[in-house]
Write a structure and sequence with these properties.
This protein is an alpha+beta fold. Helices cover 47% and strands 17% of the residues. The strands form three sheets. Strands 1, 3, 4, 5, 6, 7 and 8 form a seven-stranded antiparallel beta sheet that branches. The protein has a two-stranded antiparallel sheet with strand order 2-9. It starts with a strand and ends in an 11-residue tail after the last helix.
């Protein structure tokens, strides 16, 4: 009976859980060398913002259909990837489950970890055929979680997701930077990523939904704090990402200046939270202040995205301007 453990693969929760997982897997496999904020930038994940109308904690990972939301970012890194997922209530789930167990093991045999929805996202870094278990890191605990093969994909959300990675082609850094700005523009402009569900707003509209929830008072308290924590982290990542890229295009320097101003607002936003029983919670007397600060942040980000558009228009965009012979959609 085989047993494989990727000892040096470490996933630590600091950013969005998918970014944390991706950074752990790719750096261990030698597919990415760089800071986590650079990875969040190149993949466009730092720019994603989604907010449920009641500020539920699931907002942070509800930025779209995961496979389609993650694919452009991984493509931008030039890395081959395969994913699968869906709803565990589907009658075919057990067949997909058995197949996924096998290809996850093959990836681990090849020395590459696997991203897995726990929830949230984590990393499968080993398995033991004798006990029929996987070892899973959630990024919080130093000790791995144990996942039975028979329980693969089962969790309280009713969704399952798994992703593996392969070989890589080289993409110039400036090309990755440009594409990341274009992904940021798309995420800013698309109001709903999970249609027909309109309870979760994205991009520009997410700010309005967030402010409306705060002012109505009808929101989830723990979710309000978690969304704010995640937001402060992602916008700090964007600021650091653009700071490294200064000097390439004048408009990018101007966009960085917007996020630098937003960084000052983040300090104010963090002051709207207080620690209660070892966790951060939104101060009830600070909701209006937070709402006003978020509107200021929205205006700054709108201006930054304007500069991204100016940069984008300077270069051909074959991904979005080339229409195949069969039209805008893939042949069926």
């Amino acid at each position: 009976m085989a047993e494989v453990i990727l000892d040096n693969l470490m996933m630590k929760r600091e950013s969005k859980s998918y970014v944390d997982s991706l950074h752990g897997v790719l750096t261990h496999a030698g597919l990415f060398q760089g800071s986590k904020y650079v990875l969040a930038g190149y993949t466009g994940l730092a720019f994603k913002l989604s907010v449920h109308r009641r500020l539920l904690p699931m907002s942070v990972t509800a930025y779209g259909q995961w496979g389609e939301s993650h694919r452009p970012g991984i493509d931008n890194l030039g890395i081959f990837t395969i994913w699968d997922g869906g709803r565990t209530r589907h009658s075919t789930f057990e067949y997909y489950q058995r197949d996924a167990v096998n290809w996850v093991k093959r990836s681990l045999d090849g020395g590459i970890g696997v991203i897995y929805w726990i929830p949230e996202f984590g990393v499968i870094h080993g398995y033991d055929d004798r006990d029929r278990i996987f070892y899973v890191q959630d990024g919080w605990s130093k000790e791995p979680q144990i996942l039975l093969y028979d329980n693969f994909g089962l969790n309280f959300t009713g969704f399952w997701y798994c992703q593996i990675f392969g070989e890589q082609v080289h993409i110039p850094e400036q090309q990755m930077l440009l594409e990341s700005l274009r992904m940021a523009i798309e995420d800013w402009d698309i109001p709903y990523r999970l249609l027909p569900d309109r309870n979760i707003a994205s991009g520009r509209l997410a700010y309005d939904v967030w402010v409306e929830a705060l002012r109505s008072g009808d929101y989830d308290a723990s979710g309000a704090a978690y969304i704010l924590e995640s937001y402060c982290q992602s916008r700090t990542e964007i600021q650091m990402y653009l700071q490294d890229a200064r000097g390439i295009w004048n408009e990018l320097d101007q966009a960085y200046a917007c996020y630098e101003q937003l960084g000052a607002l983040i300090i104010q936003m963090k002051g709207c939270m207080a620690q209660q029983e070892n966790r951060w919670m939104l101060r009830l007397d600070a909701t209006e202040k937070l709402a006003q600060t978020l509107l200021e942040a929205k205006a700054l980000e709108e201006q930054a995205v304007h500069y991204f558009r100016v940069i984008s228009l300077k270069f051909p965009d074959r991904k979005r301007s080339t229409v195949p012979l069969w039209g805008a959609h893939s042949a069926r």
